[in-house]
């Protein structure tokens, strides 16, 4: 552990994690090789877990105050290296430096670390009636396995790492195969400050991920990704009874109420749909708009779509980037083509943009579609929004609730009217006149097939701990 903050440029940062015989990782925008990620084996994973297990008691013994002080120094190190981290992230993931993108994500990493470090978690007095006295304490669970996604690879990894370390756990991180370099670079900066083996990154394939979930020395799994993979993790963890926090797929619905001013909500609505070029679990993916203002809302979104520059993320002018990988690009293209074939009206976009690069797809607004079409019923996870017309609010509520996804939802319009609708939506979070906004102190998690368990704030600290009742 060092108290001297090293400040690295992009080249030096990549050199720390680049492996000569590793797997090539391509720039999402240019498709040029930016580095080679290590491909660790199951044997190397087993060794990493053993090292994390050995390091955990001493880390736990430091106590909350000392661990929090260290986490604040880790945040300092991230901030000192923020530009290099953002550039690696922009190239590997594709998101632009500016807007709610790469620099924003790196800043959020430091912010969430500081929030975890500064959140108090005191013992709770359960009963104190003169004859009985009991307290509820929360203790470290042990070794946490953190399996992250490719869309917000750094930030979501920190959502898993920060509370785990604060509570006295050690963490073994497996980044997505699509975005390993940015996460390994982040861990490298963090490990300049942390004690040895408290935080270990393992970059491997699905076999390594499956072993992490089923390993007998893993006490907790935190996973963000698809519902299908989440189900496999549940099965894999049955043998070791690892505790689980699962943030799974979403197909978030938004309802625009009658009487709403389209101009007043347009920009927030746009970014609710298209932050990170739509590659966000809790992005707005189905928009239900009352018939009386339907065309106005569609037009307002279209005007913004035409104004937002898309291109290489390292260009300071751009705020929208490519899809991160060919697999997701193909999903988006398939859903748009299906919508066209089923009568959808393409208002903007609607076809790949090869002039920008291989994986670029323009902002696409699809009007005049209905429940039951693929673009409504399947999660696009890209720069596409279907806009569905409704006549009665009751019908919009029923439509929003009809799918098995329940991560987020939103209601747009008069606040009092929206607050009447919000509790009736089946989702872990319902935003009013916004969508996707998160805060490190506000619990976040899904219901139905969007997973279970809470992150952030006090609830997030408790989720990476085990309760202990002390009576007497």
TrEMBL record:
KW Oxidoreductase (keyword) present: yes
MF annotations from Gene Ontology: oxidoreductase activity, acting on the aldehyde or oxo group of donors, NAD or NADP as acceptor
Question: What are the alphabetically sorted keywords of the record?
Answer: Oxidoreductase
PROSITE patterns named in the record? ALDEHYDE_DEHYDR_CYS, ALDEHYDE_DEHYDR_GLU
Q: Which InterPro entries match?
A: Ald_DH/histidinol_DH, Ald_DH_C, Ald_DH_CS_CYS, Ald_DH_CS_GLU, Ald_DH_N, Aldehyde_DH_dom, LUC3-like
UniProt KW Nucleotide-binding keyword: no
Name the catalytic site residues.
247
**Domain spans labelled Aldehyde dehydrogenase:** 24-464
Family listed: Belongs to the aldehyde dehydrogenase family.
Q: What PANTHER family does this protein map onto?
A: ALDEHYDE DEHYDROGENASE-RELATED
- Under what name is this protein listed? Acyl-CoA reductase-like NAD-dependent aldehyde dehydrogenase
Q: Which organism is it from?
A: Microbacterium invictum
